[in-house]
């Protein structure tokens, strides 16, 4: 393989070439580093680099001959731990912290032969649909540097879209995989609650609402990543059944004729759906019908406002507890100067919630989700917008705002098609379906039944074969 072909290859392609000896892991890594150094000054997706560490791994004869052998990897600088590397959550309060161990997902990635070479940017603490932080500044979208790549996995999405690497680490607690995927023309799967272990540093984020996974150029890479890092550990709080067969096989399997619900109505009054996004969902429905599926228009299957109120109150309590727990590691309590006003007020909100009210918020969330999941189970999958809007300009998700204003006027409305499935635990995937008149990617979202990533991957794989997107490259690209 000529290294010039690198940008056309997905992770599965690269790993096969490395395993076959047609190219070395070091050559692949050097190309990824070259590309990162080339476009990072424009896009700002690297929070930290660890090139020397990665080069030593790539040259090690003990590099595992696994399904990701030699595939370069960026670790999101939020929650996911890489032993010895920064673990700051892009938060000034934690700027000096280093990870004491690998997370379970990192351990599994290394065992599969992946080679991490840096950490990708995220917003402070992740509660944002843009990637902007005091520590690292603004991360830009390679399709248009004046708009956000999304958040909180925007650094990873910008790097993959610019063809620095074929896939990268991402996590999702309120759309943070799916929205960057939609904004950057990528595939982004939020797995089912419990599918990915969060061990060893934590057991749970937001009662199963937040999970690790990744963003990628292709459906099969997303499926393989789930095979590599998926599966709970004994004692994890949520246990899901193992897949009937590898997810990467599901992505290559025709789904048969499915019954699919389609939603184009707004999920909340303050978030009208942009006309170009309505058209993208409608175009996806036409394609699905051409592929033999039955598509039926349906109303939004959940009540967003009460569900969002309960979920964001839970996040606030968790934020307060997290910051308090960090005091022993940092050596002092956090102050207002250690974080954006959003998080200072979020923690204050969380501390004001009583234990009784916290339990009520959990019960409200779970009851509302049970009702919507039952309603949705009549269909094999649901087709919805990933976002109601096209990518926002930088600064829109203003973290100087009070949490109540921010959630009501910024985060909540824009996450109204994604956050409910963090709360419910259902799997959901965004795939690039269209491009706007201004040349920005538009993602559409498919939501499946509980623990049924297989159907989503079969459907997404079929769509990719019918309307491939890998050849679409942004203006800022290696």
Could you write a compact summary of the structure shown?
With 478 residues, the protein is of the alpha+beta class. The protein contains 15 helices and 13 strands.
Write down how many β-strands occur, each being a DSSP E stretch of 2 or more residues.
13
* Secondary-structure element order, N to C: HHEHEHEEEHEHEEHHEHEHHHEHHEEH
Count of spatially separate domains:
1
* CATH fold category name: Amidase signature (AS) enzymes
- Point out poorly predicted stretches: none
Helix run count: 15
Secondary structure category: alpha+beta
Mean pLDDT: 97
Give the helix proportion (percent range).
Answer: 25-40%
Task: List its salient traits.
single chain, 478 residues, alpha+beta, Amidase signature (AS) enzymes, eight-stranded mixed β-sheet
What does this structure look like?
The chain is an alpha+beta fold and 478 residues long. The chain has a single domain (3-466), classed as Amidase signature (AS) domain (Amidase signature (AS) enzymes). 38% of the residues lie in helices and 13% in strands. The protein is built from 15 helices and 13 strands. It has an 8-stranded mixed sheet with strand order 6-8-7-12-13-11-9-10, sandwiched between helices. A 3-stranded mixed sheet has the order 1-3-2, sandwiched between helices. A two-stranded antiparallel ribbon has the order 4-5. Strand 12 (428-435) and strand 13 form a beta hairpin. The two termini are 18 Å apart.
